[in-house]
């Protein structure tokens, strides 16, 4: 975490975070899936810049490598071969064609981050004014609530230190005016970086391009359910984001997480407080049930009373 | 209140007392560390277990300890917590209970219906807390469960903990409110008068046992009614 003065949201924090320097432009990374050739330069650039060395895995017979995001692999290319409507041009005899859909997966940097909502450790997750959602792993306690809260299944707990990690959108590079490492490495300009406004304009142009080429369902993936994201996709089949290795169609913070981390917190806390106060005031107004004496319970002539008097006599 | 002047009888044996206070300690630590994860204003409670990361590490283990202790005490106290004939009537007279008009209440057994509700609320909460807690437990178990299930488990864990904590607040207050009950759980003994006043049916049942009838501390201290042990050293009179 480099910048501590333009934080617009901070995990487990009820008062405003320091954000006097928040007059900054919202940034975004645009990934045009239709231009991706699956070279994995972005994966390499990510591990190079961030000094990450994941364990060398095994070949699973598919192009995906590693097979999933890990605490040391903050971005992975996901390859999916699907049959889609034919858009190849004049040959009307074909109805379907094979499409190789490759999506660079990683943190989407949601405007409303589920990880930040769920995180119980103050300051372990922050959202900067430029839109980047960053983990300050120094404050991370390793509970994994960010995994529970994330609508995209992105954060991973490291086996080394039990801290949670994910793409930082190269917040350290962006902070000094550089583009993220993956953007710099991408040989086809499939990944671009700039202000969110500029990227949306770029995306619009690309969508029009694709539509002209016959991809009628081409569109921008900037899901409103999480307030929009600071990593956006251009998809040729934006009506079916699930084709891209299970990209969520309408991602949003799960209502279960909302209930867990939202209204229940103040309500249940208040009820517990009221219960304790009710006890206190009951004691003050009604008083305790004092220990009954033998006389009260057994009367004068009972042998309980004799014992008492004998003992009294002895002492 | 003075044990010197009143005959006393065993209410909680040493095993039950040790179990109870071990559970109480575990419950307090779990409540503090759990609330720390639940709501930011309580985050500072996480220092009770040596900091937030230690809280995250230790909370589930303490939870397992609490569960095991609870199973032991729950099994041993089950027969005293079954609903009895007068319990419903006693509950109907909650106004008399709260206003300390004890003489109007129907006779009840070892536990009053309020205590039985604490018992059953915890019977409900603690296993739920264990199951949902295991589902959330990182880094050991959560990875084996689908994320939507972990979400539900997290919410249910919070709700069950809420019910459990509220129950324990009531339980603690009741102990402060009804004089003699804290001593019953710290020293094990109550006066005959206390027993007959608060738990008449239990008192009558216990009076069948010779050591209880004699008010003999040493014999019943060992949780048995058969042998008479060493002489009274006077420690329980304070």
From TrEMBL, chain A:
Which compartment or compartments is the protein found in? Cell membrane
Record-linked Pfam families: Fer4_11, Form-deh_trans
- Biased composition of type Basic and acidic residues is found at 302-315
In what ranges is there compositional bias, type Acidic residues?
Answer: 292-301
Gene Ontology BP term (one):
formate oxidation
Please tell me where this protein is predominantly located.
membrane
Binding-site list for [4Fe-4S] cluster 4: 119, 140, 143, 146
Where are the residues of the annotated region Disordered?
A: 290-315
Iron-sulfur recorded as keyword: yes
Domain called 4Fe-4S ferredoxin-type: residue spans: 27-55, 98-130, 131-160
Residues binding [4Fe-4S] cluster 2, per UniProt: 46, 167, 170, 182
Sites where the protein binds [4Fe-4S] cluster 1 = 36, 39, 42, 186
User: Can you provide one Gene Ontology molecular function annotated for this UniProt record?
Assistant: metal ion binding
Names of required cofactors: [4Fe-4S] cluster
Q: What's in the keyword line of the UniProt record?
A: 4Fe-4S, Cell membrane, Electron transport, Iron, Iron-sulfur, Membrane, Metal-binding, Repeat, Transmembrane, Transport
Which PANTHER family does the entry mention? FORMATE DEHYDROGENASE, NITRATE-INDUCIBLE, IRON-SULFUR SUBUNIT
Q: What does this protein do?
A: The beta chain is an electron transfer unit containing 4 cysteine clusters involved in the formation of iron-sulfur centers.
Q: What is this protein called?
A: Formate dehydrogenase iron-sulfur subunit
UniProtKB/TrEMBL annotation, chain B:
The protein's required cofactors: heme
Q: Which domain of life is it from?
A: Bacteria
Kindly give the membrane topology term recorded for this protein: Multi-pass membrane protein
Please give an example of a GO cellular component term from this record: plasma membrane
- UniProt xrefs under InterPro entries: Cyt_b561_bac/Ni-Hgenase (IPR011577), Di-haem_cyt_TM (IPR016174), FDH_cytochrome_b556_subunit (IPR051817), Formate_DH_gsu (IPR006471)
Which organism does this record belong to? Kushneria indalinina DSM 14324
Q: Which family does it belong to?
A: Belongs to the formate dehydrogenase gamma subunit family.
**Pfam families membership:** Ni_hydr_CYTB
Q: Which stretches does UniProt call biased (Basic and acidic residues)?
A: 208-238
Q: Where is this region: Disordered?
A: 205-238
Compartments, record wording: Cell membrane
Task: State which residue ranges cross the membrane.
Answer: 21-45, 57-75, 117-137, 157-178
Q: Which NCBIfam families match?
A: formate-DH-gamm
Q: Give GO terms: molecular function aspect only.
A: electron transfer activity; formate dehydrogenase (NAD+) activity; formate dehydrogenase (quinone) activity; metal ion binding
Upper lineage: Bacteria, Pseudomonadati, Pseudomonadota, Gammaproteobacteria, Oceanospirillales
Major location, coarse class? membrane
One of the GO biological process terms: anaerobic respiration
The UniProt keyword set, sorted, is: Cell membrane, Electron transport, Heme, Iron, Membrane, Metal-binding, Transmembrane, Transmembrane helix, Transport
The segment(s) forming the Cytochrome b561 bacterial/Ni-hydrogenase domain are 11-188
Electron transport as a keyword of this entry, yes or no, is yes
Q: What is this protein called?
A: Formate dehydrogenase subunit gamma
């Amino acid at each position: 975490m480099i910048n501590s003065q333009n934080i617009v949201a901070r995990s487990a924090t009820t008062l405003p975070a320091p954000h006097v320097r928040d007059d900054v432009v919202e940034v975004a990374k645009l990934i045009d899936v239709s231009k991706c050739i699956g070279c994995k330069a972005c994966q390499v650039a990510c591990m190079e810049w961030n000094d990450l060395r994941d364990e060398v895995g095994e070949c699973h017979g598919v192009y995906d490598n590693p097979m999933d995001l890990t605490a040391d692999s903050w971005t992975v290319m996901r390859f999916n071969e699907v049959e889609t409507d034919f858009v190849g041009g004049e040959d009307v005899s074909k109805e379907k064609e094979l499409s190789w859909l490759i999506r660079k997966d990683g943190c989407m940097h949601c405007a409303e981050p589920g990880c930040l909502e769920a995180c119980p450790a103050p300051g372990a997750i922050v959202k900067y004014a430029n839109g980047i959602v960053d983990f300050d792993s120094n404050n991370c306690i390793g509970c994994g609530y960010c995994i529970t809260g994330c609508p995209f299944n992105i954060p991973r707990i490291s086996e080394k230190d039990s801290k949670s990690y994910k793409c930082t959108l190269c917040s350290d590079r962006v902070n000094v005016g550089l583009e993220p490492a993956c953007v710099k490495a991408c040989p086809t300009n499939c990944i671009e970086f700039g202000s969110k406004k500029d990227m949306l304009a770029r995306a619009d142009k690309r969508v029009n391009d694709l539509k002209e080429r016959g991809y009628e369902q081409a569109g921008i993936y900037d899901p409103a359910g999480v307030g929009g994201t600071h990593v956006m996709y251009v998809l040729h089949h934006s009506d079916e984001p699930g084709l891209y290795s299970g990209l969520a169609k309408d991602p949003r913070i799960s209502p279960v997480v909302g209930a867990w981390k939202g209204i229940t917190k103040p309500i249940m806390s208040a009820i517990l407080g009221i219960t304790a106060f009710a006890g206190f005031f009951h004691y003050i107004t009604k008083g305790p049930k004092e220990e009954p004496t033998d006389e009260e319970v057994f009367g004068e002539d009972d042998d309980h009373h004799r014992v008492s008097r004998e003992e009294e006599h002895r002492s | 209140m003075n044990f010197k002047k009143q005959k006393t009888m065993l209410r909680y044996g040493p095993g039950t007392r040790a179990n109870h206070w071990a559970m109480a300690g575990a419950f307090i630590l779990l409540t503090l560390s759990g609330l720390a994860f639940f709501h930011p204003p309580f985050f500072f409670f996480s220092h009770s277990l040596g900091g937030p990361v230690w809280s995250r590490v230790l909370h589930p283990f303490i939870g397992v300890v609490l569960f095991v202790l609870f199973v032991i005490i729950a099994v041993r106290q089950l027969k005293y917590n079954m609903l009895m004939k007068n319990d419903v009537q006693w509950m109907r007279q909650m106004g008399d209970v709260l206003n300390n008009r004890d003489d109007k209440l129907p006779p009840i057994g070892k536990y009053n219906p309020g205590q039985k509700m604490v018992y059953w609320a915890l019977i409900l909460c603690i296993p739920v807390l264990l199951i949902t807690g295991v589902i959330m437990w990182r880094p050991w178990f959560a990875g084996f469960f689908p994320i939507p299930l972990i979400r539900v488990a997290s919410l249910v864990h919070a709700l069950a903990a809420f019910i459990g904590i509220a129950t324990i607040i009531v339980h603690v207050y009741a102990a402060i409110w009804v004089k003699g009950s804290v001593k019953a759980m710290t020293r094990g003994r109550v006066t005959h008068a206390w027993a007959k006043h608060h738990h008449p049916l239990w008192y009558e049942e216990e009076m069948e046992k010779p050591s209880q009838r004699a008010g003999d501390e040493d014999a019943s201290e060992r949780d048995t009614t058969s042998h008479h042990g060493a002489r009274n050293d006077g420690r329980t009179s304070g």
